C-alpha cells in the first residue's frame, strides 16, 4: 500500500509542477490554487508513505516520479525539446527508480 501512496504522491508532484508553470508566477488564480493544493496533497501522501518506507527510498522515488513526469508533460503539453540526450537522462532516472525498488528495502 505504501508504494501506491508514494505513486500518488509523485503524480501529484507532477500536477503541481505543471500548474505552477501555468500560474505564470502565481499571477493566475486557478493554476495557483491547484499548485498549492496538489503540493500539499503530495507532501501529505509522501509523509504517509514514509511511515513504512525508508526515507532515502521514498524521497528518491517521489522526486524521480516528479522529475520524469514533469519532463514528459513538458514535452507532450508544452512543446519542450525531446532531444536524444534529454530522453537518455530521463531513462537513467527511471533506471535508478527501478533499481531503488528492486533493492529490497521495504
TrEMBL record:
A Pfam cross-reference name: Multi_Drug_Res
GO molecular function (one): transmembrane transporter activity
GO cellular component, one term: plasma membrane
Bilayer topology: Multi-pass membrane protein
Alphabetic keyword roster: Cell membrane, Membrane, Transmembrane, Transmembrane helix, Transport
UniProt cross-references to InterPro entries, sorted A to Z: EmrE-like (IPR037185), Small_drug/metabolite_transptr (IPR000390), Small_multidrug_res (IPR045324)
Subcellular location: Cell membrane
Domain of life, source organism: Bacteria
UniProt protein name: Guanidinium exporter
Organism listed in the record: Methylobacterium brachiatum
Amino acid at each position: 500500500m505504501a508504494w501506491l501512496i508514494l505513486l500518488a504522491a509523485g503524480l501529484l508532484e507532477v500536477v503541481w509542477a505543471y500548474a505552477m508553470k501555468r500560474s505564470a508566477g502565481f499571477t493566475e488564480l486557478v493554476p495557483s490554487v491547484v499548485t498549492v493544493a496538489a503540493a500539499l496533497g503530495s507532501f501529505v501522501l509522501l509523509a504517509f508513505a514514509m511511515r513504512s518506507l525508508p526515507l532515502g527510498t521514498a524521497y528518491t522515488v517521489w522526486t524521480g516520479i516528479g522529475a520524469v513526469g514533469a519532463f514528459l508533460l513538458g514535452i507532450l503539453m508544452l512543446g519542450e525539446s525531446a532531444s536524444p540526450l534529454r530522453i537518455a537522462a530521463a531513462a537513467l532516472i527511471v533506471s535508478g527508480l527501478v533499481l531503488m525498488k528492486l533493492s529490497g528495502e521495504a
